[in-house]
Every structure is written in C-alpha cells, then in structure tokens.
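Take a look at the protein record below with the fold in mind.
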Amino acid sequence: MNISPIGNSFFNYPKSVYNNKALISAPQKSGADIFSFKGISLADKISIIPSENQTDLEKNIEKNLGVNPAKTEVKKFKNGEIYINIQDRVRGKDVYLMPASNSNVNDNLMETYLKADAAKRAGANRVIAVMPNFDYARQEKRTQKGEPIAARLNMDLLKTAGVDEIITADLHTPAIEGCASNNLRINHLESVDMMKDYIQQMNIPDLVIVSPDMGGTKRADKLAKALGVDKAIIYKHRQAHNEATAEDLIGDVKGKNCIIYDDIIDTAGTIAEAAKMLKRKGAEDIYVFASHGLFNGDAIKKLQDAPVKAVFVTNSVPKKTESSEKIKQIDISEQITGAILDISA
C-alpha cells in the first residue's frame, strides 16, 4: 500500500483578519492508495526579520500572524557601517522585512537593503519589505533642474538588494507606484476606510474635511465622499522646504467642525498654519488626521500651540518619546497582516 503525505493541507487564518477560513489543498499523487494530510503552519511558510528596535506595530503583526521573528543580529561598526546576520533558516520561505526604526532614515534604508540581500543569499523564496511609510516618497518628481528622482532611485535600490514586493501605506501620491519596475510589486494599502470608521465613531456634528494644500485635494475628497460631508481646500505658499504659509481658503468653514486630512506630518508647519487660518475663518473645533506622523524638529511644540483639539496618526512610524497628549495613534497592523496573508497564505 502506497501512502503519500500531502503538504499544504490545513491552515487557519488569524481570527482578527478572517473568520475561521480554511484552505484545504489535495494535489494529485500518482500511484497513491491513501493520502495522509500533513499540516503546515504559517511559520513553515514565512519568516519575519525583525527591526533592531521592535515597534508596537511590528509586535502586533507578529501576534496577529502567530509567528515569532527570526533570530537576527543587527549592529553597527565603529565607522557607522551596519552589520546583519540572519541566524535562523529562511531557505524556501517568504521573508518579510519589518520596518527599520532608527531615527536616521538613511540608516533605516541601508538596514533594509542589507537584510534583503542577506535573505536572498540564504535561499529565501521571496523577500517582501514592509514599509508603511515609504522613505523619499516626497521626491517623486523633479521640480527644478539638477534634482534627482529619489523615490525612483529607492525603488531601484530595493529591487537590486533582492526585494520582490513592497507593502506600503498611503503613498504621498499613487503615481509613485510608477517608479517601480514591472517585476517589483507594490502592495499599496489605503487607510481612508479605517479613518472613516474612526471619525464616524466620534460623532462630530457639522463636519467639513479640509485639505491643507492643493496637492491633497483628491485625498480629502475621497474621505469627504466616504463620510458624506463637505470639503474645503487651503491654498498654501511654500517659501522653502519645510516652510509654508496658508494664504487662502476655498470653501465654507464658518461655524463648522473641521478635520484637516493629510498624508504626512513632518515639521507640522503646514498643519499649524492651516489650523490658524480655519480659526480666522470662523471654524469651531479642529482635528487633524494623517497617515504618517514623523514629527521632526519642533513639530510637537507647533501642534501643542496650534488651535487643534487632537491629532490622529497611524502607527506606521514609532511614537516619539517626547510626544504630546494631543497625539493619538491608530493601529494598522491588521491591514498589514491581511496583506501578508494575501501574499503567502
């Protein structure tokens, strides 16, 4: 009697993402009289390469998946070079690189490149970089002669390092996907539905969604339509990088509660100026929702002093230790977990 074991048999998705869905695979085995099902867990299919300083987002993803991170050594030499050593077996697996979380964006990228290269050299099936906040996304085009297109360069470097797919969230502009070669897949997650649900739970009356600049008009329009409310647009003038002033308002906010909706809060200059203008135009309570809270320079002080009640950002970027009570984080780990299951489960 010929007994054939079958590999991909039973796999349960985490309940937080899908409700008890199961996949049963029974491939044909020639000459077999009995098939014995051999369970393969998700941990047999994927490996998670952790960041040097694990964030809450990363821990939540691992908890949702029920997969422990691979043992990985990350350190720096005296001259600043980064050293990577993936010590667990990753051969034949889909390897997920968690977002590096140092304060220096360039160190984070170099760490990601090196992890991708190490995983591919160790025999990984595919390498997927989890990059909720895609670095250099704001340099996706040339606005002056002599500038690089840094977003395209970053895509090229990721592909060269061995990355096969990127999981990212709320890109500065969807056109950035066009910077990737056709053999580098971009899994672009949008938080607008999650933001909509969160805002609806707040029961804010007389609501207006406000774009803090002309470039974010489509983003604000999408949220306003999802909520069924009006929108307004602020026209801003940018004197230099990270320096902007709000000059005019398109729309009516008098006596209304406003949500300023943006993708990135960096130095918070745009948000602070927008909130002040809305107050001058007669707005009542002002809230801020954004995808990525970088909070560089004196951003937290600007927000603390600005006429806003609260600032809501996703946890795509680790919360700074000197954060304000005004700043709240919304967890996106289930969205990323779902993307991982779509790729590998």
User: Anything to note?
Assistant: Confidence is low (pLDDT under 50) at residues 3-30. The two ends are 32 Å apart (CA to CA). Residues 105-121 form the longest helix (17 residues). Residues 75 and 81 are 8 Å apart (CA to CA).
